[in-house]
């Protein structure tokens, strides 16, 4: 943090009259381990930091990213060169009518550096739990840092450590079970239980697969399957811009023409999450109740939407998608789950989701990995890959029977350019009907 503070202060002193800046910081110190056939195939450590500098003058703005070396003098030189480059660029640009700077000198500070287990201890536990299995996976762990500073005097710092182990267990027939264990506190017992559940599902994959006729079936969506649905919903579902332009998949819900289940509560939870309490645009973030008892509540409003549509900005990202989505659990116990399902589908994962009818919030996708046919509360056979096509107003509306009391934390597995810190905390969902089309 001290390095970022020093650079932001240097930048304030270097400004000329009429200039403003926004300065973002991203950093990480991450351990990465790749597994194949339950053996370590690649291990490494990445330590990196970068700045995102935005220069503003007379309604014009330009942006440039630079990598930090960790050497103060060299980094000041790089920042100075970036500043001069942006000064030459600004006169070539047109003023932005939707530029809305936050002139408040807010301050935010959050450090969640819980101790993570030594990599050797993690490797020993994974190796012991995966003995005799064909495991392919990826482990990433370490602190992620985010910062923001502005010429108005705003300053934010967020640093949190986390781990994420994402893996698949492969059967000899080529089928697989996918699982994830993630969080800020590694508990050996919790990891062992998660691996035991994956082992149990793997054994069922050796049975002849069941192909079902198209139609409606009772179904249970595991948290990983439900995650695919809510992530697709995040593409405009809660966006102020999408709602203003009548392009949101939840347009009918906000218009009062459709309903979701009163069991459904969705929140963008900033407090105690792995995401910072400020946006890359320089606005403080807070918890937002997106859906309460099936009814629409707050929207995600970026600074551009605030300027264009006259709304108060609430720290949403420029793309106005949830970053730390939490769904409230229900009363359904895991131990009674299969009995409550009776005859139907146990869906462990979904993939290739997209909208088949966006205005109607109609989604289509494929079942994936550990999905099974259940009879009389017992798994009978793995389910052959099937396509579903259903409306969200059915899936999480009229057809939603219950949500599990237990919820599963999932962290973003994306490492493109850097580790990402998005998360979801979701229960499983029992549906009275899911429509399979082929």
UniProtKB/TrEMBL annotation:
Q: Which residues form a coiled coil?
A: none
InterPro entries from the UniProt entry: Metalloprtase-TldD/E_C, TldD/PmbA_sf
What keywords is this UniProt entry annotated with?
Answer: Hydrolase, Protease
- Which SUPFAM superfamilies does UniProt cross-reference here? Putative modulator of DNA gyrase, PmbA/TldD
User: Per the UniProt entry, what is one GO biological process?
Assistant: proteolysis
**Any GO MF annotation of the entry:** metallopeptidase activity
Do the record's keywords include Protease? yes
Domain Metalloprotease TldD/E C-terminal: start-end pairs: 215-436
Mind telling me what this protein is named?
Answer: Zn-dependent protease
User: What organism is the protein native to?
Assistant: Pseudomonas taeanensis MS-3
């Amino acid at each position: 943090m001290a390095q970022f503070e020093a650079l932001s202060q240097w930048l304030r002193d270097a400004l000329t009259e009429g200039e403003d800046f926004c300065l973002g910081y991203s950093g990480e110190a991450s351990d990465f381990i790749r597994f194949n056939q339950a053996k370590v195939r690649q291990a490494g450590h990445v330590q990196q930091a970068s700045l995102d500098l935005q220069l503003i003058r007379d309604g014009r703005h330009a942006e440039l990213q630079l990598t930090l070396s960790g050497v103060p003098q060299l980094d000041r030189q790089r920042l100075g060169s970036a500043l001069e480059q942006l000064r030459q660029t600004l006169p070539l640009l047109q003023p932005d009518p939707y530029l809305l700077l936050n002139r408040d000198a807010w301050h935010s500070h959050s450090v969640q550096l819980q101790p993570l287990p030594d990599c050797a201890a993690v490797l020993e536990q994974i190796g012991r739990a995966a003995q005799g299995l064909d495991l392919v996976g990826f482990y990433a762990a370490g602190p992620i840092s985010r910062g923001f500073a502005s010429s108005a005097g705003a300053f934010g710092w967020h640093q949190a450590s986390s781990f994420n182990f994402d893996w698949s267990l492969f059967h000899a027939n080529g089928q697989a079970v996918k699982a994830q264990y993630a969080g800020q506190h590694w508990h050996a017992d919790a990891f062992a239980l998660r691996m035991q559940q994956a082992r149990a599902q793997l054994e069922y994959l050796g049975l002849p697969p069941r192909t079902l006729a198209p139609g409606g079936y009772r179904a249970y969506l595991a948290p990983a399957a439900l995650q695919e649905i809510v992530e697709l919903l995040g593409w405009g579902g809660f966006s102020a811009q999408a709602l203003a332009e009548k392009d949101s998949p939840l347009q009918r819900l906000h218009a009062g023409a459709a309903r979701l289940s009163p069991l459904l509560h969705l929140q963008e939870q900033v407090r105690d999450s792995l995401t910072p309490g400020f946006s890359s645009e320089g606005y403080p973030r807070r918890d937002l109740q997106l859906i309460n008892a099936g009814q629409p509540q707050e929207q995600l409003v970026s600074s551009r939407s605030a300027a264009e549509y006259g709304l108060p900005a609430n720290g949403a990202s420029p793309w106005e998608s949830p970053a730390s989505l939490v769904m409230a659990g229900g009363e359904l116990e895991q131990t009674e789950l299969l009995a409550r399902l009776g005859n139907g589908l146990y869906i462990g994962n979904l993939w290739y989701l997209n909208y088949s009818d966006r205005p109607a919030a109609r989604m289509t996708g494929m079942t994936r990995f550990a999905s099974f046919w259940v009879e009389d509360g017992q798994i009978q056979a793995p389910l052959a890959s099937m396509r579903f096509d259903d409306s969200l107003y059915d899936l999480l509306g009229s057809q939603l029977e219950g949500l599990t009391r237990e919820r599963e934390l999932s962290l973003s597995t994306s490492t493109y350019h850097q580790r990402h810190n998005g998360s979801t905390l979701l229960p499983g969902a029992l549906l009275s009907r899911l429509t399979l089309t082929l």
